[in-house]
Amino acid sequence: MKNSFHPLRPEHLDRLNEIVGASFTHTDSQNLSIYGRDETEDLHFQPEVVVKPADEKEISQIMRFASKERIPVTPRAGGTGLSGGALPVMGGILLSLERLNRILEIDPVNAMAVVEPGVITQVFHEEVEKLGLFYPPDPASRGSCHLGGNLAESAGGPRAVKYGVTKDYVCGLRAVLPSGEIIHHGGKLHKDATGYNLTQLLIGSEGTLAIITELTVKLLPFPRYRLTLLAPFDQLEKAVKAVNQIFLAKMTPSALEFMEQDAIQASENHLGKPYPHSDAAVHLLLEIDGQNKETVERETHQLGKILMDTGAHDVLMADSGEKQETLWSLRRAIGEAIRNISIYKEEDTVVPRNQLAPLIKGVKEICQKHQIRSICYGHAGDGNLHINILKEDMADEKWQAIQKTAIREIFELTVSLGGTISGEHGIGLSQKPFLPIAYNEAEISLMRAIKKAFDPQGILNPGKIF
Ligand code: LAC
Ligand code: ZN
Fold first, then answer.
1. Pocket of ligand 1 contains residue 331 by CB under 6 Å
2. pLDDT by residue (tens digit) across 442-459?
3. Which atom of ligand 1 is nearest to the CA of 384?
4. With 0-12 CB in 10 A as exposed, 13-18 as middle and 19+ as buried, what is 302?
């Protein structure tokens, strides 16, 4: 990758020290190494300095200075991204938002919360739940990812099938532009038809347009009852038929996850915990939630019947928080478990959910043709399939070549099925070469023009998306 920026000079570091203080400016090799990675594959790019500003004012000063000196700045929240969005590929300043970690307000009357971007998603879940409120987006990394990063990627998670993704909850934000100017948009508003929707433009912009410093999100009443079902199938076709039947029966589960055998077994080995029926070809993990116990029980029963009728060889129900957590912890650990097996590449494909069967079948054919091992799992109810291709003992040359062959074929198939190349992980760095499969030249030019309007010098998170 070409870096057109000059290395930082000692006086640059002095100025950063002045803005954020010496204890929050790091140039030691350990920090540079830690902040040079996120959770994307085996990628690593060293920044020249890590800064941890305390607030929006300091971020504004950093950006004003960086734009004057033309220094690249890569913002970072929890560092759990899977497309390399937080990797400082051009060196320069890595700007960590970890100190902006306050929940500023939880407002039950308006059912809104105002939070800083460095709040850990699960911490936020727990705080609103204490007040009987609910913030649904629940990425698998919720124990360590930050709300700011969830916004940057419009993160989803298992509950998206019923409740939607991050973009569906953000009503307003404050942000610092690359120039250092501070902007706001929206607020505690359930409606807003005032001009272009800058909030929605910044959500999913992967830290390339502005640095989000505060967000206002809407909340729902916490669903008091929840039942979880696990259904093993001996054939993919039966599991996918069950998914279709559930929607044809006009049901909306609060989770409908798909895991193939290798995914379950990887997670079992990783956590050292057994999963019921882990020798089944495919599992569906489902949840029904709601405010009324009888309704939740009735719908769960109906769901169980559909699963048995479509060929599940068992339906296990978890009715206590503890049993549910056991099933979910194994599901959430799959990504990490696969990372532990081998160097890998992950494709975050998404198709209309009735196209899931042709997608999985096609992926397996492509992988067989190229003799590569893939492990698939994901959010069946959203048509969002995480496809992990493993390097294992594959020769380096072949590994390099699969970007041009197998991965490209997988994305072409996805788009031909009416889908796109990322559902919830973003384009970032790792999927950048494939963007033209999803969008034509006119569409990409428009996106580039938006980038230019926000960041004419191209200093904010350079090297991403395009
Ligand atoms: C998951 C992450 C990888 O669904 O999106 O586990
Ligand atoms: Zn996912």
1. no
2. 999 999 999 999 999 999
3. 4
4. middle
For residue 276, name the pLDDT band (cuts at 50, 70, 90). Answer: confident
- Taking the CB of residue 272, how many other CB atoms lie within 10 A of it? 6
- Nearest-atom number in ligand 1 for the CA of 82 is 3
Query: Residue 1: is its pLDDT beyond 70?
Result: no
- Crossing angle of helices 321-332 and 334-341, in 10° steps, is 40
CB of 428 shorter than 6 A to ligand 1: no
Nearest CA to ligand 1 atom 2: 140
Nearest alpha carbon, ligand 1 atom 6: 140
**According to the model, what pLDDT value does residue 404 have?**
87
Using CA positions, which residue lies closest to atom 1 of ligand 1? 140
Tens of pLDDT, residue by residue over 38-71, are 999 999 999 999 999 999 999 999 999 999 999 9
Tell me the pLDDT band of 336, cut-offs 50, 70 and 90: very high
| pLDDT range class, residue 175, cuts 50, 70, 90 | very high
92 lines ligand 1 (CB under 6 A): no
Q: Judge whether 420 and 359 are in contact, CB under 8 Å.
A: no
Distance 140 CA to ligand 1 centre (A): 5
Contact 348, 83 (CB under 8 A): yes
Ligand 1 in reach of 386 Cβ (< 6 A): yes
Residue 75 Cβ contacting ligand 1 at under 6 Å = no
User: What tokens were used for 439?
Assistant: 């969008």
The DSSP string of 453-466 is HH-TT--BSTTS--
For the beta carbon of residue 293, count every other beta carbon within 10 angstroms. Answer: 11
Whether ligand 1 lies within 6 angstroms of the CB of 334 is answered as: yes
Q: Closest Cα to atom 3, ligand 1: which residue?
A: 335
Cα(58)–Cα(152) distance, integer angstroms:
20
Q: What is the pTM assigned to this prediction?
A: 0.97
Q: Which residue has tokens 């109906």?
A: 302
Residue 438 pLDDT > 80, yes or no?
A: yes
Q: Is 226 in the pocket of ligand 1 (CB under 6 A)?
A: no
Tell me the backbone φ, ψ of residue 395, rounded to 5 degrees.
-65, 145
Q: What H or E segment, with its residue span, contains residue 33? A: helix 29-34
C-alpha dihedral, 271 to 275 to 280 to 282, nearest 10°: -70
